[in-house]
Amino acid sequence: MKELTDQIGTLHTFDKTPKRIISLVPSQTELLYDLGLEDQIVGITKFCVHPYHLKSTKKSVGGTKKIHLEKIRLLQPDIIICNKEENTKEIVESLREICIVWVTDVLTIEDNFQMISDFGQIFNRRTEAQKWNDKIAYGLEDFKKFIEDFPIRRSAYFIWKQPYMVAGSSNYITELLKLNHFTNIYENKGRYPEIDLEKMEKEGDPAVILLSSEPYPFKEEDAIEIGRFTHHAKTIFVDGEMFSWFGSRLVKALPYFKQMHQRLGLEG
User: Is the pLDDT at 72 greater than 60, yes or no?
Assistant: First the structure.
């Protein structure tokens, strides 16, 4: 028997290693797979697209904000993996009637290391978890050397249109913006604030505009429209998964960030 505390402070008691896992978070589904737990995963969301073949081999139990409770119950899970931002408090509370619900809360890179270590403990994959954390630590050290002489640039990271919404404070995206030597001009406006394009110059005048591929698929015409309200900002389309997916995805994100900076350099 072991006792472990999740990232929202809930203490859980495990009398055995969970064998039937439902994941309600796409990035954490990817992590579970990378930890060698594919056979134990019995349910995923319709947004769990990596690795792609899981969509045809695992039962879909809905989305991240709207779930099929009875489908989940029938799968007889030992544990359900949720996330404070991705899943609602109401969903988590309803699922606690079925089995253990482990909730992650990843706002920083340190939180990401902790989440991976926790999964290693829960699922008896300590060696695999340590290997992934070592890969991330090595990649971070290499990336920080790459970025150390880059100037700090003001930025805005757009996630939605109609209304326009951006990444703000207390989220993983802003943490990765900082890693990339970008200051977020909207960091003091809430987690995902709605913004007025006409006020963008006064509110921080970003030097770099990042248009995410998810959840809204920005297009060239959007870049032109947003750019009109800046003072010659560079605009770049970015893979939203690299900025918002925590877990093992950070190993792929770090070389992606290098390529992104090279693209920004060529543009300017």
Answer: yes
